[in-house]
Amino acid sequence: MSTAEAPRRAIFLDRDGTLNHDTGYIHRKEDWQWLPGVVETLRRFHAVGYLLVVVSNQSGLARGMFSEDDLHALEAWVNEDLAAHNAVIDAWYYCPHLPEVTGPCNCRKPEPGLILQAAADLNIDLARSWMIGDRVRDMEAGLAAGCSCVLLRPPVGAYEDNVPVPEGVKVVPHLPAAGVHILAPEMRAHRLSRLPGGCGAHCGGKRSSDGSGLPGSGGSGCEGGPDKA
Questions:
Q1: Residue 114's pLDDT band (boundaries 50, 70, 90)?
Q2: Is 14 considered catalytic here?
Q3: Cα separation values, 211 from 44, 217, 223, Å
């Protein structure tokens, strides 16, 4: 019998504008500013078993604005900061290219190369994984790799306000809202499984009264019948 581990699911994350404020070519810890609710959301993703993988375009490398050592130092600092809050990023992948300088590549989003490489390295099941980012190119990369996708588009100050969203992509204002979208079905199934005679993930019961299915939502549990979620 094979002892190979089963493929894992992952959350692929863009970096600037998704995790931190995008002030342009960030490569120093002094310039890193977490967006609200991000660290807690990362902790929740990891708690239910998702690998967290950052996939980002870093054309500042090709432009000569900073070095790979600078980038690795920033990533190490972010990892330390997350560890202090019981959170983690499992892996960092970045594209160092800029087509007009280095020529074409298959890793600069919207190409899916970074996601595919991470999936091969980390034994990730792409069909059970998600891509989250604030640009349509993030969504295009995720869809090309076979992931479900969530676009972060705040009501004010969003990039690409007028760029059409690819079919099948969920749009939410920020990463914590993406966390609710992704995790609510799991939390609902967990809650139902703890009811007397709980029916678990394949119940088919109706949603809790507020529609969230999250713990503490005040929902009343399974009522039978087809799931309308």
A1: very high
A2: yes
A3: 20, 8, 13
CB-CB contact of 152 with 172 (8 Å): yes
Query: Is 16 one of the annotated active-site residues of the chain?
Result: yes
Burial class of residue 167, CB neighbours in 10 A (0-12, 13-18, 19+): exposed
| Predicted confidence (pLDDT) per residue in 167-202, tens digit | 999 999 999 999 999 999 988 877 888 877 655 444
Look-up of token digits 């019998």:
1
Answer for the pair 117, 98: CB distance below 8 angstroms, yes or no: no
